[in-house]
Specification:
By secondary structure, the chain is an alpha/beta fold. Helices cover about 35% and strands about 20% of the residues. It has helices at about 15-25, 40-50, 60-65, 80-90, 105-115, 135-145, 165, 185, 190-200, 275-280, 305-320, 330-345, 355-365, 375-385; strands at about 5-10, 30-35, 55, 70-75, 95, 125, 150-155, 205-210, 220-230, 235-240, 250-255, 255-260, 265-270, 290-295, 350. The strands form two sheets. A nine-stranded mixed β-sheet has the order 14-13-12-11-7-10-9-8-15. Helix 4 packs parallel to helix 5 (about 105-115). It is globular. The model is unreliable at about 370-394 (pLDDT under 50).
């Protein structure tokens, strides 16, 4: 196989962006051969944009069964990520899933189990922030071992302000039945993935969420979470879509350094010795360590989405490494689920979380979601049939 025939399921904002870039040749290993969308208007757009070179299908299944694709990008609303990824896997079609991996880990675990049945399928996740030179360098510094262990991580990520008009743009937006959550499911999946990719998974999470604090929505738009890690490190994660002038600052305190990612740059304050060594030997009551601050050199490259799609193609054709294996998507989602459940139950949640309890609590909110009644019923019915839930309609 010299080229990969690619299909895209869902050609809304992200799917259309991927389609245009691939059609323009930005990922040379791929040929865009087909798209699928249940919205006829999007298929009209595709026909006008790509002409006869790209086939258009009204359902994903029709496209997957057509024989014209051997790889597929899933770019549909969150609840259907797992469904269509599994449909691809069952047909031995390589698949890349947009973030988040799904809405709840019980669902994503089924997707990962299906992937394990199909070693011939290259399964990837769209965690494009892992390609950012700042986070790549930060990962390298932490993994080097030069600075010891992580002691504390603080991340305030509030620079994705959203006015009410954003939430009013679709009936599915910011609803339990449409998105399955708010800032944690829509804006934060990349940061939650980076958090676990850089620092590992915490063992305990306690969170306080506000629902519709800054907007007329039913899901969270303001979050503060506290985390504990197995080595004794602690962390705080703060996010909101209500700050008109927000901040994106990640600070990691280690045994022998403090590393800060802020405003598109990285700064390292390196200690002469570890804090433990200094504290044990120092005799001055207010003693201070010798330290130096510098900006580590990076390659400056930030290829975004194409930086994930191109390696996916290389993995399919030449066995090269992925940016993110699809199975890794469950980790950041578990953090999101844990934050939700901690607030719902009013207590700390240990990881891995109780996935059945999370699903039960989520379905309570899906059933009372203010999204259009017919849509809510359809979502609940589909989940009940798939996962055997005992929840019944009101």
């Amino acid at each position: 196989m010299e080229k990969i025939n690619l299909g895209i399921i869902g050609i809304g904002n992200m799917g259309a962006s991927h389609a245009k870039k691939i059609f323009e040749g930005q990922c040379p290993d791929f040929i865009l051969t087909a798209v699928a969308d249940t919205n006829p208007d999007r298929l009209v757009w595709a026909k006008e944009t790509f002409g006869d070179a790209v086939k258009c299908f009204a359902t994903a299944e029709e496209m997957l069964d057509s024989g014209c694709v051997n790889a597929c990008i899933v770019a549909v609303p969150h609840f259907d990520h797992v469904k269509y990824a599994i449909e691809c896997m069952k047909r031995s079609i390589h698949v890349l899933v947009e973030k988040p991996a799904g809405v709840y880990t019980k669902q994503v675990r089924e997707m990962n189990a299906e992937a394990d049945k199909h070693p011939e399928v290259v399964f990837a996740m769209m965690f494009n922030q892992r390609t950012n030179h700042i986070y790549r360098k930060l990962k390298e510094l932490i993994a080097s071992g030069d600075y010891g262990q992580i002691r504390r991580v603080n991340w305030i990520i509030t620079d994705w302000y959203r006015p009410q008009a954003y939430y009013d743009s679709g009936a599915w937006r910011a609803t339990w039945s449409g998105e399955g959550g708010g800032a944690l499911l829509n804006q934060c999946p990349h940061q939650l993935d980076l958090l676990q990719w850089l620092c590992g998974m915490p063992v305990k999470v306690q969170a306080h969420l506000h629902y519709g604090k800054w907007h007329d929505i039913e899901v969270e738009d303001d979050v503060t979470a506290y985390m504990e890690f197995a080595n004794g490190a602690t962390g705080v994660f703060v996010t909101s879509t209500g700050d008109a002038c927000g901040t994106n600052r990640l600070e990691i305190q280690m045994d022998k350094a403090k590393i800060v990612a802020y405003k598109g740059s990285l700064e390292v304050t390196e200690y002469e010795v570890t804090e433990q060594e200094f504290s044990a030997k120092n005799t001055a009551q207010f003693g201070k360590m010798e330290m130096k601050t510098f900006v580590p050199e990076t390659d400056g490259v930030n290829p975004h989405h194409m930086g994930v799609i191109r390696p996916w193609g290389a993995a399919i054709l030449r066995g090269e490494p992925l940016i993110a294996d699809g199975r890794e998507g469950i980790n950041g989602l578990m953090l999101s689920n844990a934050m939700h459940m901690s607030d719902w139950l009013g207590k700390a949640v240990e990881l891995p979380l109780d996935e059945d309890l999370y699903y039960e609590e989520l379905m309570k909110r899906v059933k009372t979601s203010r999204r259009k009644t017919v849509e809510v019923k359809a979502v609940v019915a589909d989940m009940d049939s798939t996962y055997g839930s005992k929840i019944t309609e009101k």
